[in-house]
Protein: DUF4916 domain-containing protein
Organism: Amnibacterium flavum
Amino acid sequence: MSFIGTGTPDPNPGWLSDDELAGIRQRLPLLYVEAVPVRVDGLGQVTEVGVLLRVGSAGTITRTIVSGRVLYGETLRDALFRHLEKDLGPMAFPQLPASPNPFSVAEYFPSPTLSQYVDERQHAVALAYVVPVTGTCDPRQDALEITWMTPAEAASDAVSAEMEGGRGALLRTAIASVGKLP
Amino acid sequence: MSFIGTGTPDPNPGWLSDDELAGIRQRLPLLYVEAVPVRVDGLGQVTEVGVLLRVGSAGTITRTIVSGRVLYGETLRDALFRHLEKDLGPMAFPQLPASPNPFSVAEYFPSPTLSQYVDERQHAVALAYVVPVTGTCDPRQDALEITWMTPAEAASDAVSAEMEGGRGALLRTAIASVGKLP
Amino acid sequence: MSFIGTGTPDPNPGWLSDDELAGIRQRLPLLYVEAVPVRVDGLGQVTEVGVLLRVGSAGTITRTIVSGRVLYGETLRDALFRHLEKDLGPMAFPQLPASPNPFSVAEYFPSPTLSQYVDERQHAVALAYVVPVTGTCDPRQDALEITWMTPAEAASDAVSAEMEGGRGALLRTAIASVGKLP
Amino acid sequence: MSFIGTGTPDPNPGWLSDDELAGIRQRLPLLYVEAVPVRVDGLGQVTEVGVLLRVGSAGTITRTIVSGRVLYGETLRDALFRHLEKDLGPMAFPQLPASPNPFSVAEYFPSPTLSQYVDERQHAVALAYVVPVTGTCDPRQDALEITWMTPAEAASDAVSAEMEGGRGALLRTAIASVGKLP
């Protein structure tokens, strides 16, 4: 079984066999998109933050956000939409932001010396977005559940400690970018 | 007739009489919000930009964007929503951005020496936002019409030349912020 | 003694007497700029965050950031530079950012119901910036001292609890905006 | 002769032979950083924009900005610094921004149907930054010259028409991000 998202199996590994991708992972930074799903009120204000519960490759249960690779020939928006649909189901109705600018750029390295974000498999650079969803989220694949929390809960040390790859800091940065960090 | 928006009469001048406001205008910078209404496609990409046609105080017809003052005790989101509703009607269904950060800050001074933005009446500082609208726009008050254009048209020299107070540059900056400047 | 910054006496209250300013404070939102001074390394990465120790009006010692009002006819950059010099001294050599866009906008209200930021005296809206300083900081006026901390220390609950007006959240948001939130 | 930057030969192709890189280019998006060098005044305001003159692979002379690939194991800041030094020389003294967030993300595809940015060789995604330089620029390698222009000149149609890969739009977006678009 191959994992090319952050613990997310991808049925279409971009015209690369598992062996080829494994080889490239040691030689090139891979481009990712990540998304923090949120609920907003009538004035656009974030009221809830969605955090995914996921069974990791070792059977451990961790929290994460929507995350996945950008394929060859795919725009960032297409990749973002594809991974949101994969992780939240087809009825989430995400509202992708009008601006292509991420709220932050997370650099994942195999070892934690260069960055606070770690991905043992590879060097990955993720453009991260906050995405309001207006529909019903129904996590698919290996995501067990989406938990909706207040921004303050999502930014808490308890939640951060359960997130994989150091993504607690990225989640807090997302909450800061919408002015909701406590 | 009093104008407290940029050419926009405001029925509720924030608990200030016209005389009082006129006096303050010579002594304090006033805080404004401005909004560029846009239409987006299913991937959040801006497809059209809305520009208002307005009859100015001298009877001249100029183009502008949504603009108005922030009142005492009013949040930026409330002010933004109020002015969007005033200029686009109650059925525009604006989607205010999740982030409070403007795409740009425009500084208006009575004379054009300090900034490219000019407001003869006052020193005003405007926080400017791009706001997708999903409903029907029905301009009210003194706005005659909203014209929907492609981003390239809205960024053209012809449109810029018709905009009041130097807002052509602000409109282009809005279009740049969503990655659609030609 | 009058305070028109956040606990900062201002020798030039913008051609307004104290009485006039007191009156306006109940009727108009006032425009502020705030700055978080930082030290950066050769790659622009934030290594230290400067937090001011200040004696508040009640004699209490609190932590704060650089903060002050924008005067009539003054650009945001001029206001930012003036308040940085006032609070950090003339040898701080601040490098104002090339972009006019703040990392966040903080809305201060007299009561804490509308926002997490509180200013008992007034409704103030602050454009907040991260500003690298390259020289020597020598706090003047009522700022007793500037303390340099790692980003993680500055984002800690202990520091947040000591900051006035809810600025702990703003300081954390600043740290998030430079990718240094733990 | 191999070009792995946008027209920039790179002596160290990231532990990949030319053949290997050529193969990967058809199968994965490559991660780039791009930089618009600027001069700023004492208040951080952009006064001049640097545009590179470069001899393209076909011998044609085009204008471009600093651009190059991010290597495996390299941080974005290290890549940015390396390419700035390569294109502007060792005495440019670039001041990398404190925030890791790009002013825009440019998506280059071999054909112009998906984006306004084109790179015939590959699918590349570039994080683009505005970088003040304080020293002396002495372009090396295949960059013939750096031309300093006012923001208005750099944003002109004449300059845009000479830029490779559609980067005129990116240059204008950079100028918009610092509030200097005319």
